[in-house]
Specification:
The structure is a single chain. The chain is α/β, with parallel strands linked by helices. The chain folds into 2 domains: 301 residues, TIM Barrel (Alpha-Beta Barrel), CATH 3.20.20.150; 80 residues, no CATH class. Helix content is 41%, strand content 14%. The chain has an 8-stranded parallel β-barrel with strand order 1-2-3-4-7-8-9-12. It has a 4-stranded antiparallel beta sheet with strand order 5-6-11-10. α1 links the parallel β1 and β2. α12 packs parallel to α13. The chain is globular and about 60 Å long. It starts with a strand and ends with a helix. It comes from Hoeflea marina. This is Mannonate dehydratase. Its cofactor is Fe(2+); Mn(2+). Its EC number is 4.2.1.8.
């Protein structure tokens, strides 16, 4: 498998030598400066590719191998194949990527909110900090800040009582912090930052859309884009929902093995693939990650390897160190290596250490939440160690 590293571009303040020093060779990046829904140009992709791949004398060559992500506009999620202009623009972006020799495109189909956390620097017993999803804080926001219509009926009496106690214990700064974390769009998000009124309006637009309809919209999108993906040699990889369950009453349809099986049955094109994110899928106790990796092995072209740890309230979780959470990382990597052994070097699975705890020098530097250099370096080293052990006799 090929070792990747997510890079948010030159404006993120992270030099490419950081990636080299981490030991990765494959860069995962995107044109985050392009507005959602606007078509990427070949020239803009080429400029980013040149920045990544033009190698100073004596430096290790890097390769831009994965685009994460080309955002799918809200209109596609709400109306599916009817959003023809938005889908055509998305195809144009994909074709611009393919024209520059990049063959893997990651995307997600989460409506209104992308990956969601309530805390960005939850202090762990080691003194490192981690991102966290606190169910009671989330419910407090949903019930008493957003005041979502119909939300009361979706929580048990006990959950509502805990949410109220949590809300009443928070001061204005804490309420603002949680609100910002949920509504502002975290790094790499493919949804727009929202004010509370905008948030309510977005939710209202999905009031009549259930999981069945949302899946139909995703299938309609895939039926429109996979022929173009096949023609230009691109593998599409759908990232799981994060967390893998409904938030704010919204349908989420990439949370389980059954969800993915339904999509692959509906659109069997070999271009229709999966981003296997162990952290997202691992939040859901019923997801057997090694079994999912084995079931969809041929569809996995890109993997996010990280671990999450469910807490006393199993709806709460935090980002653990890569080998310390609920994910059996050794078993997962065993399955991925078995698949990778069947492939050519050019079609090898690309993985990256996803997220990471802030530790050591990370604690004293500003950076993108979830993407600290040292925390990810630790994760990559641990993943590399597993791979070395599992392949020692080959």
């Amino acid at each position: 498998m090929r070792q990747g590293w997510r890079w948010y571009g030159p404006d993120a303040g992270v030099p490419l030598d950081t990636i080299r020093q981490a030991g990765a060779t494959d860069v995962v990046s995107a044109l985050h400066q392009v507005p959602i829904g606007a078509a990427w140009t070949r020239e803009a992709v080429s400029e980013r590719k040149a920045l990544i791949e033009t190698t100073p004398p004596g430096r290790t060559q890097l390769r831009w191998s994965v685009v994460e992500s080309i955002p799918i506009p809200d209109a596609v999620k709400r109306t599916g194949a009817a959003a023809k202009a938005e889908i055509e623009a998305w195809i144009a972006s994909m074709e611009a990527v393919a024209a520059n020799g990049i063959g893997i495109v990651c995307y997600n189909f989460m409506p209104v909110v992308d990956w969601t956390r309530t805390d960005l620097d939850f202090v762990t017993p080691t003194g490192s900090t981690a991102m966290r999803f606190d169910q009671d804080k989330f419910a407090a926001f949903d019930l008493f800040v957003l005041e979502r219509s119909g939300a009361q009926a979706e929580y048990s009496a006990e959950a509502r009582a805990r949410a109220r106690a949590t809300f009443e214990a928070m001061d204005e700064a804490e309420v603002a912090y949680v609100t910002n974390n949920i509504t502002s769009a975290l790094p790499g998000s493919t949804t727009e930052p929202l004010t509370i009124p905008q948030f309510r309006d977005k939710l209202a637009a999905y009031a009549s859309i259930d999981a069945r309809q949302m899946r139909a919209h995703l299938v309609g999108f895939l039926e429109a884009v996979t022929p173009a993906a096949e023609a230009c040699g691109v593998k599409l990889t759908l990232h799981p929902d994060d967390p893998p369950r409904s938030l704010f009453g919204l349908p989420r349809i990439a949370s389980t093995a059954e969800d993915y099986a339904a999509l692959f049955d509906a659109v069997p094109s070999p271009a229709n693939g999966m981003c296997f994110c162990t952290g997202s899928l691992g939040v859901r106790a019923g997801n057997d990650l090694p079994a999912i990796a084995r079931q969809f092995a041929a569809r996995i072209h890109f993997a996010h390897l990280r671990a999450t740890k469910r807490e006393e309230n199993p709806l709460s979780f935090h980002e653990s160190a890569h080998l310390e959470g609920d994910v059996d990382m050794v078993a997962v990597i065993h399955e991925l290596l078995a698949e990778d052994a069947k492939r050519s070097p050019e079609t090898s699975i690309i993985f990256r250490p996803d997220h990471g705890q802030r530790m050591l020098g990370d604690l004293h530097e500003a950076g993108s939440p979830g993407y600290p250099a040292v925390g990810r370096l630790r994760g990559l080293a641990e993943l590399r160690g597993i791979i070395a052990a599992l392949t020692a006799d080959r």
